[in-house]
Design goal:
By secondary structure, the protein is mostly helical. It has a domain of 52 residues. The protein contains one helix and no strands.
Length: 92
């Protein structure tokens, strides 16, 4: 890697923005986006995991997917809310 080029690996592929906002408006915007992404991704996980589990392992897979969906969905929603709140809180 060239020393003159900044390393943005992970930032473009990240679900939530972890860069410090430059002003209050960008902090609010980034925070709301992170919150929305967390809720959408969490809800999608809650719905998709039991379906995938049921397709791969029947009823047992459904319940395993349900547990994974609840845990994963809650984690994504919580992460989005926390990152969003931090972005709003630390905006200038």
């Amino acid at each position: 890697m060239n020393m003159e080029q900044p390393n943005f690996i992970g930032e473009k592929n990240s679900l939530f923005s972890t860069r410090r906002p430059v002003n209050a408006l960008s902090g609010l915007s980034s925070g709301l986006k992170s919150m929305t992404k967390g809720v959408v991704a969490g809800t999608a996980t809650l719905i998709a995991a039991p379906v995938v589990g049921a397709r791969t392992d029947g009823v047992k897979g459904f319940f395993g997917g349900l547990v994974a969906g609840v845990v994963g969905g809650a984690a994504l929603i919580t992460s989005g809310l926390v990152v969003g709140t931090i972005n709003i809180r630390f905006s200038n």
